[in-house]
Amino acid sequence: MRCLNLALAERSYPILIGNDLLQSAENLQPYLRGPRVAVISNTTVAPLYLSTVVTSLEKVGVGVTAIILPDGEKFKNWESLNAIYDGLLAARCDRGTTLIALGGGVIGDLAGFAAATYQRGVSFIQIPTTLLSQVDSSVGGKTGINHPRGKNMVGAFWQPKLVLADTRTLRSLPARELSAGLAEVIKYGLIRDLPFLEWLEANMDSLVGRDDDALAYAIERSCRNKAEVVADDEFETAKEGGRALLNLGHTFGHAIESGMGYGNWLHGEAVAAGTVMAAELSRRLGWLSEADVDRVRDILQRAGLPVCGPMLGAEQYLEFMSHDKKVVDGRMRLVLLKSIGSAVTTSDAEHADILATINACCHE
Q1: What pTM was estimated for this model as a whole?
Q2: Per CATH, is 175-363 categorized as 1.20.1090.10?
Q3: Which of 10, 92, 120, 363 is catalytic?
Q4: Whether residue 363 lies in the annotated active site
Q5: Is residue 226 flagged as an active site residue?
Q6: Is residue 184 among the annotated active site residues?
Q7: 290 is catalytic
Q8: Overall fold of domain 2-172
Q9: Catalytic residue among 36, 243, 325, 326
Q10: Which of 36, 70, 280, 282 shows the smallest number of beta carbons within 10 Å?
Q11: pLDDT digits (tens, 9 = 90+) for 95-109
Q12: What are the residues facing 335 on neighbouring strands?
């Protein structure tokens, strides 16, 4: 088992990574606030792993309430959040109840937001079961739901007490979901860790082939990168760089998700296409070469990801992008690449260059 620590003073917590971690309640028990938990999962993950978690906890005397939601990004909304509240209230869960998110990024975000707001805040634990959630969304305390006008526009910062990433859950992951997670893995190499990007280029076939050692290393290296960034800028308030750099490709990607309807493009797929747009815009600003953009496109393609966005229309992209959380004082802040392995936040991209980038990187 690999163990990292996200250093946030009194809110610090461990990230445990390894095989078959779900089977042992000893991994969870030290981080429970009381003798009761509510496990939040969905209709896809619960049949696979819920009984393992429940059995392990009940063996050590922990009472378990299960709340099962429908699966999919389109259900990351008020209705699902209220379904969690309804389940907690029906089970008479109090402030000593720990919420456990068992699932991918949608479940983690929903359960985390419920934990942040139920009775003004209860403890929660992340058990991410997808590659994307293991390397990104489960770490850092961002929680929330989507709004029809923008992704993740309603939410809260609420740190978990523990992140437990059981890599064996990746064996049941569809190939498309695995590729979606690799988009976030590649992101870390592009924004701040060139040696990791080079390792990914050399080992992409092993990752796509689900080699256990390669996946465990990629997860640990990704989590280490994110933990360092979050520890320095927990609430994304840095005026330059900071946690915002983790959003490479996300402003374009969120526009794809909103424009196509939540769930039609997986988050990682939209981020991949958005990352190519960010690289192309960086080239137009004179920061990257054409060969650099090709390098970005190549590794994403090798991961099984789309490198062209849908043709929503450039103005439609800009409309969705204008609602992005990184818009400050009416100016769009984009995460771009000064070089491969070094990202910046900037508001200096000209409107015409953004339009040209969108048109160049999208197709019917």
Answers
A1: 0.95
A2: yes
A3: 120
A4: no
A5: yes
A6: yes
A7: no
A8: Rossmann fold (3.40.50)
A9: 243
A10: 70
A11: 999 999 999 999 999
A12: 345
